[in-house]
Amino acid sequence: MNYHQAVYDVPSVFESCDRPKKPKAFDNTVGGLIPENLVRHGLDIPDLPERDVVKHFVNLSQMNFGVDNGLYPLGSCTMKYNPKVCDEIVSWKTVSDLHPLQDPSTIQGALRLMHELEQMLCEIGGVDSVTLQPAAGAHGEYTGIQLVRAYHEANGESRKEIVLPDTSHGTNPASAAMVGYDVLELPSKEGCVDVEAVKSAVSKDTAAFMLTNPNTLGLFEKDVCEIAGIIHDAGALLYYDGANLNAIMGKTSPGKMDFDIVHFNLHKTFATPHGGGGPGAGPVGVKKRLEEFLPVPRIVLKDGKYQLDNDRPKSIGKVRAFFGNYAVLVRAYAYIRLHGGNGLVSVSENAVLNSNYLKTLLKDTFELPYGDLRKHEFVMSGRPLKAKGLKTMDFAKRLLDYGFHAPTVYFPLVVDEAIMIEPTETESKETLDLFADACKKIVAEDPEVLRTAPHNTARSRLNEAKAARDMIFSWRGYEKKMQADAEKARPC
Amino acid sequence: MLQYLKLKSVEELFSDIPASVRTDGLRLPDGLTELELRRELEAMMAVNRTVSQQPTFLGAGVYHHFIPAAVKTIVMRSEFITSYTPYQPEISQGMLQALFEYQSFMTELTGMDAVNCSMYDASTALGEAVLMSYRLSGGKKFLISRAISPEKKLVAQTYARGADIQLTEVGYDPMTGSVDLEDLESKMDPDVSGFYFESPNFFGLIEPGAAEIRNILGAKTMVVGVNPMVLALVKPPADYGADIVVGDAQVFGSSMSLGGPMIGLFGCKMEHVRKMPGRLIGLTVDSDNRRSYCMTLQTREQNIRRGKATSNICSNEALLAVASAAYLSLVGKSGLKDIAAKNIEHAYLLASRIGSLKGFKAPHFKGTHFNEFVVTSEIDPNRIHEELLSNGIHGGFPLGKDFPELKNSVLYATTEMHTKGDHDRLVNALEAVR
């Protein structure tokens, strides 16, 4: 173990003392342009030299951990290494300095890139049409379920229910609820969808079935064809959550598995850096019969020119302003072109190989429920830690001390003390070996070391309950609280 | 690794996929080297006309502002850009503090108690606000100002439809472009949960009747759309009692990038915070009692509450929030006020120059505008647009399609990025259109 994160006490920018001694005079009405009754008085933002601001944020960055720092095996998030050329391309003025309402004749390159990206995603997803508008995976789900609703309504049906397995991502039921659907969650059997449960759950009220395949346990839903048959026979649609697409490119496709609607997480599979939480992009692909419902505008190629088609009477309208997260789309396009078809197949092969290799190294250290063969990720149970009075969270926190980001923990809910590991294809065998060694070392350590972990990070274990109690969301909120506390403490 | 797994080929790892759904590779072009990729994309992108190659007077929700070089230095830090949602706060303090500072800047500018650490963009923030208004006040109707961007209106309609909420438009005063208070009053009924208006609105106008609107709404939810840059100069929405504020913080240090990613601003009063969508960063301490930051009130969110969450949002626009915090730290209060003042001065100057041309009226509405204003002309706006384009200038956004009552009107925007020379070129070209 040789990892030590930088530790600073970086004051808030709001408490930095380097404010200018004499603020220059400012006419708040801007020469009378703003009437006195609309004028703002008071704005508490510091004036700092560039030098200090850069130091502030660089020091903060050193108290952060990204893929570039090391292994980030956060299950379901596909934290792979991202080629730097993709970041550079989006900083070109010909990419960044375009306004979304420009005349189409002046953005032909941008429209061409998006049109070609749609076609490449059609091939990868096995679908007929793609919209690039959704801004994230959950937003893609939301869009997809809006399409489900539009499809049934166009058929004069008002189906009320979305069915999904208990291994699904939390976004699935949340997206369905936002489109006005009731959600029926089915218990899994041996980690996979229970076909009998699907049979008895599905009715003429079922609007769609949402499935992630491979699922969040990393298992391929082997009964997918039978499930598709049951869903389609009931007149419902089949929705594919593309969060785990990194496992199957070129081996199968959602379309081939008979899914009607698919979302892609471009930031996962096609390597956009995750930016501390975003931006991402969640394009949605559909089969022919759903194409007419896609959001407007559609990018169409007519007489050698790319144009915007807004004349789509059955469209669900818009789910986001303009074209979507264009800069993310450009990165994904670049990533796909760098790899090419064969390269993407290798991506999936190596992602699955790395996952199975690491799983094999670790399966005796923890418990591995539900069979052996996994796809791009695997979920173990941290139950053996209980004997020492420890939890999965203690193990996760201790991993940080070894310079590895923790896996996803306590998800999916069907596994007790879940540890969800996705190494991705970009990690070397040496890194995986080191990670496995660290895991084994940790479980043999003094339990107290785990319980009080982490020790080598910028902060020791956080009091998260206090944050929820105090509800301080801003520097102003902090100052208010300090003032209130001081008044309380004052003797009467 | 294959040896260790006792496998002959990697294909065996895919043996669980039924043969009937197997595909054989991907029909995509071969991979490129980095150099080949750059060459190809440079050529593809070269046909775009950037806003610096042709002076462009578009705004309508996306603005071309100057970005100090240090913003890029900060957001491109590997530790920031290649991290994800700070699920493990002890090793993610940098991102958490940066996001907390973004929340702090937005809290200061809007005056609201809690601002989350981003939605996708202003349009989806509005969609979420419509849903939150229903959670706060009940009632399956929501009123929405007519003077908002058609893009936002379409997105709001999608979100409303999903929750079976009916959107009803409230008109604007044809003279001032501000909210028609009588129309608002006439549309209030017990089934209305709230009202959305903008300041500045789509026509660039600061709303003068906000206090009256608050009175009319009573206990209903007041949702206000802002361009946060304007708030450097103009009263914040909290001052007139807004319940929810939405907007776009792209104006603070993020490029336009064809409109994406943007950064949805979303803030509310403290009493509403548990009904709020999106991630919130809160202040706390670690076990050594050191000041620390973590995500908080997560029981509102999809990863905990699933179908009962306040929203489905997971990935957001965190990196752009860092850009906003960096930008505002760099320009400071003085810089921000100067930039905002320059925007309003440029707009008034340009409006008066266009307004003095024969056949043009600018600004069309009587009121206080920020960096956008409406121009009405005797000449067909489409003809003007084509003539400007052929002169290497991109005009404003023609309003006729979405606002038939303004069929001869165009929305022009100008920012600190335009020089006097850019204004001269536009004015001369407009004068030459006949």
Gyration radius of chain A (Cα, Å) is 26 Å
Kindly provide the name of the CATH class of the largest domain in chain B: Alpha Beta
Structural category of chain B is: alpha/beta
Helix and strand element order of chain B: HHHHEHEHEHEHEEEEEHHEEHEEH
Provide the CATH architecture of the domain at 85-338 in chain A.
3-Layer(aba) Sandwich
Fill in the CATH topology of the largest domain in chain B: Aspartate Aminotransferase, domain 2
Rg result of chain B:
24 Å
* Total domain count of chain B: 2
Total number of beta strands of chain B: 13
Our measurement of the CA-to-CA distance between the termini of chain B, rounded to an integer number of angstroms, reads 74 Å
Shape of chain B: globular
CATH superfamily placement of the largest domain in chain B: Type I PLP-dependent aspartate aminotransferase-like (Major domain)
Counting H and I runs of at least 4 residues, what is the number of helices of chain A? 15
Tell me what you see in this structure.
The complex is a heterodimer of chains A (492) and B (434). The radius of gyration of chain A is 26 Å and the shape is globular. Chain A contains 15 helices and 12 strands. Chain A is 36% helix and 11% strand. Chain A has a 7-stranded mixed β-sheet with strand order 1-7-6-5-4-2-3, with helices on both faces. In chain A, strands 10-12-11 form a 3-stranded antiparallel β-sheet, with helices on one face. A two-stranded antiparallel ribbon of chain A has the order 8-9. Chain A has helices spanning 50-62, 84-90, 93-96, 108-125, 137-154, 171-178, 195-201, 224-233, 266-269, 326-362, 392-401, 429-444, 447-451, 464-470, 475-489, and strands at 129-131, 161-165, 182-186, 206-211, 237-242, 261-264, 284-286, 298-302, 305-309, 378-381, 408-409, 418-421. Among the domains of chain A are: 13-62, no CATH class; 85-338, Type I PLP-dependent aspartate aminotransferase-like (Major domain) (Aspartate Aminotransferase, domain 2). Chain A is α/β, with parallel strands linked by helices. In chain A, 54% of the residues are buried. With 434 residues, chain B is of the alpha/beta class. Chain B folds into 2 domains: 69-326, Aspartate Aminotransferase, domain 2, CATH 3.40.640; 332-432, Alpha-Beta Complex (Aspartate Aminotransferase, domain 1), CATH 3.90.1150.10. Chain B has helices at 34-46, 69-75, 78-81, 93-110, 122-137, 150-162, 181-187, 210-217, 302-305, 318-355, 381-390, 420-432; strands at residues 114-115, 141-145, 166-170, 192-198, 221-226, 244-248, 264-268, 280-285, 291-296, 360-361, 372-377, 397-398, 409-413. In chain B, the strands form 3 sheets. Chain B has a 7-stranded mixed β-sheet, sandwiched between helices. In chain B, helix 2 runs antiparallel to helix 10, helix 4 runs parallel beside helix 10 and helix 5 (122-137) crosses helix 6 (150-162).
